[in-house]
Design a protein that fits this description.
Elements lengths: L7 H7 L3 H13 L5 H11 L20
Helix pairs in contact: 1-3, 2-3
Amino acid sequence: MIQLDLSPAELWTFTTNPYERNARARVSTLRPDWRLADCIGWLAAVYPRGLASQGLIDIDALLLQA
């Protein structure tokens, strides 16, 4: 058996989890001045193992205001 661990940026780029895809879209909506790479970078920094690993279904949008 082989286990492949993605980097945080890869996880957010290639996620198939619908909550994580929605989170990526929500960051893009809340920060329209950011490129997709910026959105993925922020998500990777704040949620490095994704939402599902933390039992979450949404991001904390207040963190984007900092």
